[in-house]
Amino acid sequence: MDLARQRTPKLLFNLSEVNYIDSSGVATLVEALQRLGDYDGKLAIFGLSDRAREVFDIANLTGVFELYETEEEALGKM
Questions:
Q1: Is 56 in contact with 27 (CB distance < 8 Å)?
Q2: Residue 30 sits in a domain of what CATH number?
Q3: What is the DSSP letter of 76?
């Protein structure tokens, strides 16, 4: 969260090595998104495994976060 406190304009999370994410991991991402929203910062996530994406689907967060397949795609949209 230090980057959000520093008002970093864009945060890009590479989750390609994450096979599973639990509620505390999702909560951390939600908190980062909220902090970035305080100053119009952007957050994007790419490289979600099917299993990790399923967690976002179940929690109805696919419309909340900017989710991309690749880093290039995420950078192009930010």
A1: no
A2: 3.30.750.24
A3: H
43-69 pLDDT tens trace? 999 999 999 999 999 999 999 999 999
Helix ranges, the chain (H): 2-5, 23-37, 50-58, 71-77
Rg over alpha carbons for the chain, rounded to the nearest Å, is: 12
- Structural domains in the chain (count): 1
Q: In this prediction, what percent of the chain has a pLDDT beyond 70?
A: 94
pLDDT for position 2: 64
Q: What is the DSSP letter of 41?
A: -
CA distance 78 to 75: 5
Contact (CB, 8 A) for 65 and 41: no
Residue 16: Cβ-neighbour burial (10 angstroms; 0-12, 13-18, 19+): middle
| Domain extent at residue 23 | 2-77
